Amino acid sequence: MDYNVLGPMVVRDATGVKPVGGLKQRTVLAVLLVEAGNVVEFDRLIDLVWNCRPPAKALTSLRAYMANLRRVLGAENGARLVTTSWGYRLDLGSDRLDLREFEMLATRGREALGRGRFAEADGQFGRALALWRGPALVEFGDLGFAVDERVHFDEVHAVVLESTFEARLQLGRHETVIAEIERALRAAPLREHLWGQLMIALDRSHRTAEAVVAFRRAEAVLHSELGVAPSRYLVDIEASLYGSGSVNRAVSLVAM
């Protein structure tokens, strides 16, 4: 079985996509996937599925959803939906969950990056990012469990993306990574690490003037959105740019 939650939830087996059911039933499965291997207590699962506003017979409905899911998943995979005396657990066994695969690839990438194996790190990070088809658990909207998990995994995704850029900068791909960093900044303009990577990539591409302009852009965004000045991280990168003769042209560009 193949479970995908990095984007709209899709469940597949060898015969194709499985019809998992309506929103509440899909939510039950999504919670159990996020908590795979752990027992989710009945009361907690009810609160998560109904966003702390359960109907009078929520436990009866929950049992019906579980019975339906076991039938949809089939005898072998349905047996992995385990009932205990206090809750439900999903045992993945050999089934694939994109969330777990993403975490595994990201960990391998970080380990390779830490050992200076930059090409390997880039490959692992690339495979991890390719698993994303949209925001995590996107179809579950503002349900509390989905919001919390989405915030967490969006942050992990952002860190992996930054780590990818770090690996590529270490590989000397300064010019090719600039457009990718700019694209990432359009989605997350408050991430200072991205601004720093953009400045470094521009400077190493002999575009120091534009690197200084990037610092000024970051400074303006941070002041406008958060009311704060750039961190020491960005200030130190900016200071390092002033060893280049191109910086005089940068200052004139900023003043325009």
Total count of helical runs of at least 4 residues:
11
Let me know the number of strands: 7
Q: Which range does the strand content fall in?
A: 5-15%
Mean pLDDT: 90
Low-confidence stretches: 248-256
Strand order of the largest sheet: 3-2-1-7
The major sheet is characterized as: 4 strands, mixed
> What's the alpha carbon Rg, rounded to whole Å?
23 Å
The ordered H/E elements are EEEHEHHEEEHHHHHHHH
Q: Share of helix among residues?
A: 55-70%
Termini Cα gap: 58 Å
Overall structural class, as computed from helix and strand content, comes to alpha+beta
Describe this protein's structure.
- By secondary structure, the chain is of the alpha+beta class.
- 63% of the residues lie in helices and 8% in strands.
- It has 11 helices and 7 strands.
- The strands form 2 sheets. Strands 3-2-1-7 form a 4-stranded mixed beta sheet. A 3-stranded antiparallel beta sheet has the order 4-6-5.
- The termini are far apart.
- 31% of the residues are buried.
List its salient traits.
single chain; 256 residues; alpha+beta; 7 strands
Please sum up the structure shown.
With 256 residues, the protein is an alpha+beta fold.
Strand-helix topology:
Layout: E1 2-4, E2 10-13, E3 16-17, H1 23-34, E4 40-41, H2 42-49, H3 58-78, E5 81-83, E6 87-90, E7 96-97, H4 98-114, H5 118-129, H6 144-170, H7 174-187, H8 192-204, H9 208-226, H10 232-241, H11 247-255
